[in-house]
Amino acid sequence: EIVLTQSPGTLSLSPGERATLSCRASPSVTGNFLAWYQQKPGQAPRLLIYDSSRRIAGIPDRFSGSGSGTDFTLTISRLEPEDFAVYYCQQYVRSPRTFGQGTKLEI
Amino acid sequence: QVQLQESGPGLVKPSGTLSLTCAVSGDSISNTHWWSWVRQAPGKGLEWIGEIYQSGATNYNPSLTSRVTMSVDVSKNQFSLTLNSVTAADTAVYYCAREAAGYQLAIDSWGQGTLVTVSS
Known about the structure:
The structure holds two protein chains of two kinds.
Chain A: E1 3-7, E2 10-12, E3 19-29, E4 34-39, E5 46-50, E6 54-55, E7 63-76, E8 86-91, E9 103-106
Parallel strand pairs in A: 2-9
Antiparallel strand pairs in A: 1-3, 3-7, 4-5, 4-8, 5-6, 8-9
Chain B: E1 3-7, E2 11-12, E3 18-25, E4 34-40, E5 46-52, E6 58-60, E7 68-73, E8 78-83, E9 92-99, E10 107-110, E11 114-118
Parallel strand pairs in B: 2-11
Antiparallel strand pairs in B: 1-3, 3-8, 4-5, 4-9, 5-6, 7-8, 9-10, 9-11
């Protein structure tokens, strides 16, 4: 099983600031088959990024993903009020398709 | 646009069986996607339960494999989850989802989720 560890657990920032979220994998995620999801209270998660860096249609370009192997990053360049939520990474290279424990981005 | 809708009892007794169905609209379950179940205990993170293909092929989370069964009904365009011998630890919001072939099997569509409580 691939274990994904996200950091920090909670990130406190203000609108307009830059957010950097980390996801570390053990063992590595081959093929960069890693996705990022955003979840707001009472809602289902929403896919933002797949294959480590490919942004889904309709996702603002302030969201970007990077990384390979064991270290992946989600960056939000300029936070908007609607970006404050919980973010999860997930690997889908191998079953079970594990999630990280989440990073809560709070104002 | 694909839509997924979970249905099933919201309350299950301890040691009983949890059964949920996911109705798919806007896409054929026979397309080249996998269909999955993910759960989220109150205040906790996401846990992948397993996935099923149109052929009936399945992959389950090893932590649940002894208690989980998934099935697919192509004629009704729906798939189902059964979880046996439930305990309070199985109380969660259960989501059905599509692992999209176009996104290398990342989950691009989710149901709204249904809360299942295990309690006597």
